[in-house]
């Protein structure tokens, strides 16, 4: 689990650093989502282990209470048998008392160990959940940077003079040029004005030709 988180951290640093030395063909969001899914699986595994450990501790504690109860009962039986002069019964009760006493001591150690293990698993689970939350936040941050990068890319492409523009981009460029003309006060000549200019030019040409003929 620790190795997985280490690999995830290293991969994130490598994939999403601003250094221009490395570029990835894969979508960074898809890559991060893959790491998130792996981390979610690990968190789920640890959560299951925590639950199993709790059940184990519960069973061990139950057995410990039973051993303590039987040890106390047999200890009392030993006393009663000895007071009654029943030596054989006292010996039998003593053997069982010794057995339950040993079991009680062993179970006390097991319960203590299982408690420590449960604490470690709970701490691990809590740490993994925090790391997973950080990964979710990291994904949101990356998505934000991806959105800005995509917007900048589209803007640069829309304002570039390179050929191969789409119809929408050409229309946008035409509108942009028109707005620039409005800002500078430049206006396109109406068709009528252009026609008059052409007629005047033709008239001047005829006049020049007549003058040349008279000479």
UniProtKB/TrEMBL annotation:
Superkingdom per UniProt: Bacteria
Family the entry assigns: Belongs to the PspA/Vipp/IM30 family.
Keyword vocabulary terms for this entry: Coiled coil
Protein name (record): Modulator protein
Coiled coil: 43-77, 104-131
């Amino acid at each position: 689990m620790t190795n997985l988180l280490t690999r995830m951290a290293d991969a994130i640093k490598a994939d999403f650093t601003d250094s221009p030395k490395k570029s990835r063909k894969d979508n960074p969001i898809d890559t991060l989502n893959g790491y998130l899914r792996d981390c979610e699986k690990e968190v789920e595994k640890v959560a299951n282990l925590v639950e199993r450990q709790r059940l184990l501790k519960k069973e061990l504690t139950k057995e410990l209470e039973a051993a303590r109860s039987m040890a106390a009962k047999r200890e009392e039986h030993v006393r009663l048998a000895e007071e009654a002069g029943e030596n054989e019964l006292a010996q039998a009760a003593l053997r069982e008392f010794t057995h339950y006493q040993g079991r009680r001591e062993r179970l006390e150690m097991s319960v203590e160990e299982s408690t420590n293990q449960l604490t470690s698993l709970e701490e691990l689970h809590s740490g993994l959940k925090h790391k997973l939350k950080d990964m979710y936040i990291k994904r949101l941050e990356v998505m934000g940077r991806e959105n800005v990068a995509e917007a900048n890319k589209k803007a640069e492409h829309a304002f570039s003079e390179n050929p191969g523009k789409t119809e929408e981009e050409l229309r946008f460029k035409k509108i942009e040029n028109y707005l620039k003309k409005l800002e500078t006060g430049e206006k396109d000549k109406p068709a009528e004005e252009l026609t008059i200019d052409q007629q005047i030019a033709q008239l001047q040409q005829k006049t020049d030709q007549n003058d040349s003929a008279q000479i």
